[in-house]
Amino acid sequence: MVGGHPVDDYETAVEQIETESYWRVLREPAIPIILTALVVHIARRNGADIAIFVFAAAAILVDRRWQRDPTPSETLRAALDTLGARVLLLASCVYAVVLALFPRDGWVSVVGLSIPGLVALTLLLRKPDSPLLTGLEAPASPGAAWRWWPVLGVTMCLWELASFLQQPDSQTDSFTHPTLSSVVDPLLAEPVLRSVVVVCWLLVGVWLVCGIVSGPRRAQRSTSQ
Amino acid sequence: VISRVLTISVYVVIGVALVGLEWAARVGTTRQLPTLAATLQWAMRRRSSQLGLLLAWWWLGWHVITAS
Questions:
Q1: Mean pLDDT of all residues in A59-82
Q2: The pLDDT value given to residue A224
Q3: CB proximity list for A123: less than 8 A, separation 6 or greater
Q4: Contact indicator for B21, A148 with CB cutoff of 8 Å
Q5: How far, in Å, are A39, A41, A43, A223 from residue A51 at the CA level?
Q6: What chain A residue is nearest to B47 in terms of C-alpha separation?
Q7: Largest CB tally within 10 Å, which of A56, A118, A190, A221?
Q8: pLDDT tens by residue, B25-68
Q9: B-chain residues within 8 Å CB-CB of A156?
């Protein structure tokens, strides 16, 4: 199923995807959002954030090339099902507590927070992507009211940006107009609270990976591949 | 000091609005409003959104939790 319509001729559908414009990805929201955020990071002169966002945009563009021959992920899907929610929750708690024992500005913290992202990215890059190519049914549209969520997110980003623009300089926090990260910074100095935040962050990541890997339910194909 | 309190208050208001929206989606009378999870799942129908959201999650944790 694609967009609610059954795929009668799988080969034709795959061919259609392969011949469509490569640059169509630029019309999707991800790249414009990443490039907009990149402009802000350039203004902040934060080299690590600039590198991460350039990498993100490049990863999406390169991945667009890779998705011609997707690898089935049934093994990964089965592995996640076997692990179960309790094991993942327990593993996240242990990981977070151990990580909170180390200083926030140390290399252990940086590496410890990089590993989950690298693992998640590796899992995602192995996952067949397109609902069309994998025979998965695209999720139904949630209706027009979904726009309230991005409205809230954009409001948050604009307020954060307004606070950032009122800083004395790009590297110095403003006391009168603090950014959100500078507000929560003292709170995260507390190891217990930091471990709670890390657990929540890890669980969101697990949810994202499971949602992407599991995907929507499989649709019946009317023709053999 | 008033400006600081006002600035932080807006963050709190946005956070409360987020919780309120989720509550409205789950138990409110307007069933047309999807939950945040449903909205994200719908957004992740695109491969670029999957990668974008995953990298955003990674960066956000890395950016907020580490004291770089």
A1: 65
A2: 39
A3: A76, A209, A213
A4: yes
A5: 12, 9, 13, 44
A6: A129
A7: A56
A8: 888 766 688 889 888 888 888 888 888 999 999 999 888 888 75
A9: 11, 14
pLDDT value of position A204: 92
Terminal CA-to-CA distance of chain B, rounded, Å?
27
Contacting A residues, span 173-202, partner chain B, CB-CB under 8 Å: 175-178, 180-181, 183-185, 188-189, 194, 197-198, 201
pLDDT of A119-155, one tens digit each?
888 877 765 554 444 555 556 677 778 889 999 999 9
* The pair of three-digit structure tokens given for residue A20, joined into one six-digit string: 């469509």
This prediction's pTM: 0.78
Measured CA to CA, the distance from residue A96 to residue B25 in angstroms comes to 30
- For residues B66 and A103, what is the distance between their CA atoms, to the nearest angstrom? 9
- B55 and A121 in contact by Cβ < 8 A? yes
A164 in Cβ contact with A39 (< 8 Å):
no
Report the C-alpha gap between A106 and A83 in whole angstroms.
31
Asked whether the predicted pLDDT for residue A40 surpasses 80, the reply is: yes
Whole-number Å distance between alpha carbons of A60 and A55 = 9
Q: How many CB atoms lie within 10 A of CB B26?
A: 11
B23 part of contact set with chain A, CB < 8 Å? no
Contact B50 A181 (CB under 8 A): no
B7 near A176, Cβ under 8 Å?
A: yes
* Residues A211/B44, Cβ–Cβ less than 8 Å: yes
Would an 8 Å CB–CB cutoff place B63 in contact with chain A? yes
Work out the minimum CA distance from A73 to partner chain B, whole angstroms.
Answer: 15
Q: What angle do CA A165, B12, A171 make, to 5 degrees?
A: 25
pLDDT above 90 for A158: yes
Work out the average pLDDT over A44-54: 86
